[in-house]
Design a protein that fits this description.
Length: about 150
């Protein structure tokens, strides 16, 4: 095995840790902290900015993981297939949130006007979409834990 190939397991673990850490810190530390100290509209804007960055971190980590898995001679074909499916499932979660849910929720917040989304007739639909978004984040977070354990 070449020197580069010998470092691929560590590289996979590093990328998985970065991805998992970003998901966990934003979803379970930063976002709740922001909502605990900032008003609803401002907090939503701040967390929305975080989510935009998280999406791009997810896309980059997914691409890196797919390349690392593809060129890892230490992985059997079945394990490569499992890791690829895991990464693609996480990527699908990120895409659903970034391309589907976040833009729709942002449009609802904007349509709600200066009184805010909670005072709007769109509140129920927004709350449902927010719950679905949280579910996708939870699923991606759990898959990230599996990826972290299985990347070595």
């Amino acid at each position: 095995m070449t020197a580069i190939a010998a470092r691929l397991p560590a590289a996979r673990l590093l990328v998985a840790a970065l991805w998992a850490g970003a998901l966990w810190v934003l979803g379970y530390v930063a976002a709740p902290a922001v909502f605990s100290i900032a008003s609803g509209t401002n907090a939503g804007d701040i967390v929305g900015s975080f989510l935009h960055r998280l999406a791009w971190i997810s896309f980059a980590c997914a691409a890196l993981m797919l390349v690392l898995v593809r060129f890892s001679p230490d992985l059997a074909a079945g394990r490569k297939r499992f890791l690829n499916l895991l990464v693609l499932a996480m990527l699908a979660c990120a895409l659903v949130m970034y391309v589907g849910l976040q833009p729709a929720m942002a449009a609802m917040r904007e349509a709600a006007g200066p009184e805010g989304i909670r005072a709007s007739p769109l509140w129920t639909k927004f709350a449902i979409m927010h719950g679905v978004s949280q579910l996708f984040h939870l699923i991606e977070s759990i898959l990230a834990a599996v990826l972290l354990v299985k990347s070595r």
